[in-house]
Each structure stands twice: as structure tokens, then as C-alpha cells.
Fold this sequence. Notes:
The complex is a heterodimer. Chain A is α+β, with helices and mostly antiparallel strands.
Amino acid sequence: xxxxxxxxxxxxxxxxxxxxxxxxxxxxxxxxxxxxxxxxxxxxxxxxxxxxxxxxxxxxxxxxxxxxxxxxxxxxxxxxxxxxxxxxxxxxxxxxxxxxxxxxxxxxxxxxxxxxxxxxxxxxxxxxxxxxxxxxxxxxxxxxxxxxxxxxxxxxxxxxxxxxxxxxxxxxxxxxxxxxxxxxxxxxxxxxxxxxxxxxxxxxxxxxxxxxxxxxxxxxxxxxxxxxxxxxxxxxxxxxxxxxxxxxxxxxxxxxxxxxxxxxxxxxxxxxxxxxxxxxxxxxxxxxxxxxxxxxxxxxxxxxxxxxxxxxxxxxxxxxxxxxxxxxxxxxxxxxxxxxxxxxxxxxxxxxxxxxxxxxxxxxxxxxxxxxxxxxxxxx
Amino acid sequence: xxxxxxxxxxxxxxxxxxxxxxxxxxxxxxxxxxxxxxxxxxxxxxxxxxxxxxxxxxxxxxxxxxxxxxxxxxxxxxxxxxxxxxxxxxxxxxxxxxxxxxxxxxxxxxxxxxxxxxxxxxxxxxxxxxxxxxxxxxxxxxxxxxxxxxxxxxxxxxxxxxxxxxxxxxxxxxxxxxxxxxxxxxxxxxxxxxxxxxxxxxxxxxxxxxxxxxxxxxxxxxxxxxxxxxxxxxxxxxxxxxxxxxxxxxxxxxxxxxxxxxxxxxxxxxxxxxxxxxxxxxxxxxxxxxxxxxxxxxxxxxxxxxxxxxxxxxxxxxxxxxxxxxxxxxxxxxxxxxxxxxxxxxxxxxxxxxxxxxxxxxxxxxxxxxxxxxxxxxxxxxxxxxxxxxx
Lengths: 380, 391
């Protein structure tokens, strides 16, 4: 076809253009994939039967441990499958400034509330039998280089900044991230010895048995503690995590902004090339018109050239990363598994073709409206 | 060696307006994106750096890395009275013992988004003395000690929902109380502008704190700072001390990820736009084959042809760079926020500084350079006879 011939005529320019479209689209692909995986995570949590209770004004204020008993006693029979207290520890390993995701939790209800970790009965039994026991994620085991039965010492990042020694008792199948969970009663023992006080709790995580039970938890727990010394807010898991992430900055909004900007770049690259090759070929197009090619046919030719450029750029931007993440697992530190979903890859490809199309519109219109006689007279 | 007049290049650029405008537009967009990203990281860094006064000594618990998780007892604060070289007033050494807690509020832009404001308990006079009198009340008045009154930083008043003068906000942990906002203060763009200040003893009561979070002292010279830090870290007090500047610049290290991100972005987009410049310049060279042959024939050297075409590419990119910087000025004054590591949101204004404009123009010139070097090389090496014969 004439279009492909035209593109092949100036190979250098075609290559440069395709690469110049591919690079911004690659950025678009990555930012929209990150955005998509965050949104997917929220969407899957939306259905989650898990809710979290924290102090009304902040996530950082500690609540008394006894509130677990109070929540359990006011819950109607069978509504809550488990209430798991959790307190942030933010442990650092000696000699490193990196604070790991580490939490003190109730060992009896932890496997129920976090059933997605898929702890085996063996692992659950060991966690319940070992006071210093710790459940760690696969990434944590890899980074810190520990296995079952190994000891690891961490120093907390919040007062009273104690050092605790843990024994790894489980690396569950469903826990991939660099996290460590350990027993709240162990932390509490150490805490009491130092401060003389009982340790506080950041969150009460609960697994509800039904949507109806979840509705109850979201309203009635807060109502119960209203006007008490410890007022609470109970949120769905997705709301809790979302506001936690968003308080660190509007990452999703930022990714969208960057994505939009790079698409504009890709568009103007396409426009640049298309208008240039049209300008060079003005007399050629005039000859074609004079030979009897219809104006719409010529316009179609220019547009299809743009589409082809966009498509080629899109494929180069999308294909390598798409294939890479689908053939083997890719994970980003601090973020977790990274995949390019087919829908995101499709969108990026569509955007690429759209860019090519839009870029070719103005040159195509110019080609259609070309005054044949004037153009033929003009010396290029 | 005679060189081609620049006017030749300017006229050549003007001869193909569409190609020229689209190349300039492309570079302008890339440079605008780059300036914006740079402003985001730089301004965040600056707000933290400004917050840190080199002559204010910040004292926190030895195990803590920020004020929000630090705790120091009253007895420790008393020991600071003996700190050598510390600036004094008529009552003795200026020690501002402060308490910091975190309270969440809704963002005014989107009420669904929660932000974490630092609530700071202070004795206003002492706190201001320890900060070199940089805290100015711009609306209302200072809170009265012992009452449920607070003042808010100007960023808080403008970016948080329901935090204006006269509003009531909820503060506290064991039993939440309503506090009235009686004043708005400004420290001239430091992180303190994102804080809520109240009387320290009232807030300690509301938050059931037995001690304080931190203390601030004032030094007269940088040498005094060293001596004070040595005393406070030493056996007589045993607390962690550093200049405020050191503390906050350490916290702004968290911005490195954004820095890396914007550098990677600009490399990718820069290569893309260099390709586009190359395209434009290759087209320019191809379109003027005969012209180049003529120039060579009348005695211009290959070097001057090379320089001339390079200049043309650079001209394009500089114009794009200027346009991009001009566009990015619209971002000047926009508000963004960061979480600098201590779990409190600090909001700041974007500033497109001369430095950013300088770096952006340098990037534009780099793009122009790499985009035009190969096409210019091709133009310079063109055999005269063949190019003259070409139609």
C-alpha cells in the first residue's frame, strides 16, 4: 500500500517518530498500571468483610486494650468472627534506618481476621505456643535472610523505643510483603516493665460474618463509644487504607496528571512529523490529485499514515513490559507485585493510535483542501 | 573562517511555520512538565530547609527521630536551664518546652481526603523567642493560656476544611474537646504554617501527657550551637540535640523518591523530544540540499555549515524552553502537600525559582544540541557537486 511505502521512504524519520511516540507512551503505561493496581486493591477491599476501628481524631492515638472485650460483648451473637487488636511497632533492625511494617497483634484472632494469609494449622499452633513468635512475609524473610526458627531483633520506632527479640514461627503462603506480625501480649509484658502502664492499641480489626454484620459494625461501635473517654471511628478496610495512603499525598491524582502530560507530548511528536512530511510532499499530493485521486482518498492516506505511526509506537511501548510481566513475576520493592493488565495495555495502545489519528487530522485536512493548481506551481 | 549570519537561520525557521511551531510546542510541553516536577521537589525541600533555623537548637528524646514520637520529662527540661551559651532573657535561659500531637482534618479541596495536622502546645512568647520572633499573628490574636483556644498556621486556615478564624475544631485523645480558633499566624512559609498551636499546659492535659515532646533553645552564633549540642548530648542531660536545620533537612530526604522520579521522567521525555528535534532538522537539511551545496560552493566551510545548522536547532529548542518556562509560571503559587516522615502533612506553595528556570533552559539546550548534531553533521559532509545537482 501507498501508506506503508510512504513511511518506508524516510526510514530514519519514521524510526525517530515511532521511538518518540513510544517513549512517552511507555511512561503512560507505567503510571496507569500503578494507578490501576491501587484502584484494583481498593476495589477488592470494597467487598472485604473487614473493618477497622481507630480513635476518632487520628490513627496515631492509642486506645485501651480492654475495648476489645467491650466490642465483643456488645456485638450480636455471630456477627464478628474475630476482633484483632493491633499496635504499630515500626521495627528497625540494628544498624539500619529502614523501618519495617511491623505490628503487634492478638495471636488468637489474627489467623481469622487475616485469613487471606492462609496460615496452616501448624503455623497457627506455633504462633499460639511461642510468646516471642513472629509471622513474617516472604519478602521480609528474603530481605532479612531469616527462616523458620531463626531469631530476629528489632527496635521500635515509637515510644518507649524498646528492642524486642522475635522467633520466626511462620512464613505463610498468602503473605508476600516485607511485613512482620508479632504477639501483642509479649509487647505488653515488656511495655509494662518499662512504663508501669498497660500498652495501648492503634486499631481494632474485625472480620464480620455478613454484609448485615458489617453494617452493624460500621455504625454501632462508634455509637457505643460516643461521648466516652475513647471516641472511635469505624471504617471499611478500603476507606481506612485509602485515607491512610492519601494522607501521604495524592498519588493517584499525581499519576493521572503525569499520564495526561506525557500523552500530550506523544501527540505533539506525531503532529510534528505528520505536518513535516505533508509539507514536503505538497507537490506530490497535488500531482496525485491532478491524476484523479479524490480528495477524500488522499485525506484517508494521510490519516492512515498517522494511525500506523501511532500503532507502531504503541506496540513498541507496550509489548516488552507486557510480555515481561506476563511471562515471569516482576516485583517492585516497597510496592509488591507489578503486572501490566491487559485492559491497561489495551488502553495505552488505543491512546497511541488515537494520538497518531489526531496528529494526522490537521495535515489531512490541509491535503483535502489543497488548491491543486497553486500547489503545482509552487516550487518546493 | 567566515560564519553564516544568524539571520539566515531565523529566516529559514520562519520559512516553515508549521514544522517550527510544532517543534517549539513539543519542547515547550516537555520543559513545562520538567519545571513543574522540579518545583514540586524543590519547594518541598525548601519548606523543610527554611523551617530549620541554624541557630535554633532542637532537643528530643535520644531514641526518637522526630518530635511526634519523642517524649522528654519535666526534669529533663529543667536540666536544660544550665545549658552554656544559650540565649537568655530576663527570666533565664529561653527554653520553649513544646508538646506535639497529630490530629486529622479534612482537606478543603476534597473533604473525603484526610490530612494529618500537627497540634503543637507552646508558651507563645517562649516559642516565638526560640524561633527568633518569626511567628507573626496575621489575623485575630494569640490564644489565652488556660482556655480552649488555639491559633492556626496560614496553610491550615487555607487548606483544611473548617479551620478558619472563629471556627471550632475537635482536639484531644482521652475525651475530645472543642477548641475555638482565635487567630491565624504565619512564619513566612515554613512547616509551622501547617500546624495548630495552643497553650502547652492545656493541650498536655487534653492529651493526657505527663511530659513534653521537645524543647527549643536559641544560640547566638553557629559555634555556640556546637557547644550547646555537646552539653545536651553529654552526661549532664543525655538527650538528642541538633540544630533545627539539620533535623528538618534530614526529614526532607524522604523527597528523594520524587526527585528520582522526575529525573527519570525528564530523561525519557527529553530523548523523545530530541528525536523530534532531529526529525525537524533532518527535514530542514533535506529540504535545503541545494542551498547547502551553494553555500559550500561560494566558500563557506563544512564547519560553518555545521555550526549554522546546530545553531538553528538550538534556536528552536531555546524558544521552546522559554515558552515552556513561561507556561510553568502558571504553577507558581499552587499548593501541594507532603508527608515528610513524621506523619504530619506539610503543605507548601510551588515556586518556579530562577534556578528552576535556569536548569530547564539548560535541559532545553541539551535537547536541541543532541537533536541537531547528527542532521548538522550530515549537512556539513554533503558533497558539493552532488548536492548542487540534486533537484
